[in-house]
Amino acid sequence: MTGPSEDGPALVGIFHSPYIDCAPSGGALPSPSLSPMPRHKTKIVALSSGGGHWVQLLRLRPAFEDTNLIFATVHEGYRADVSGCEFRVIHDGNRSQKIALLKSAVSILFLLLVEKPDVVISTGAAPGYFAVRFGRLLRMKTIWVDSIANAEELSMSGQKAGRCADLWLTQWPDLASPDGPKYFGNVLSQ
Length: 190
Fold this sequence. Notes:
Elements lengths: L42 E6 L3 H8 L8 E6 L12 E4 L8 H18 L3 E6 L1 H12 L3 E5 L10 H7 L4 E4 L11 E2 L7
Helix pairs in contact: 2-3, 3-4
C-alpha cells in the first residue's frame, strides 16, 4: 500500500466536520483593541499498533493539517514515516500477551496524561483501544477508525473502543448502522 495522495483519501474530510468540534471551550473573544491572541491549534495524538493499522493512520495525515500532531506507535523504526511531526513509541501488546498488554495500557495512559491532547484518534488495534478508552475517561475527544481489513465484521478492539468513542467509524458501508459505527469513506479512496 502506498502513502496518501496529495488530495488524501475520502475519509479525511470527517475530521473537519460537525461530528468533532475541537474549538476551545469557554471564554470571550478578545477585544478588537487588544492584540490578537494566538489561535489555539488542536492537539492530536494519532496512535496505532504497527503494520496495516499504522499505514491506515498515515493515510489520514492530510486531515491533521494545521494541528499540533503527535504520532504514537509501537516501533521506533516508524519515526521516518512522520518526519516533521512529533513521535512517541508506546509498548505493544495483545490479548494473548497479558503482561505486554498491561505495559501497553500504562504507556498509553502516561502518554495521554503528559501530552494532554484535545483529540485522540486510532485505527487500532489493542493499543488504540486503550488510547480511546483512556482518552474518553480523561475527557478528550476520541475517534476510532476500524481497520479496512475488517470487511465482514468489526474488529474486537473496534467493537469495544467504538462504544466509548465520540466518533466511531467503519470503512465498509455494509458495517455501518444508525447506532454506530458510521461510514464516511475509507483510507483507500481518492
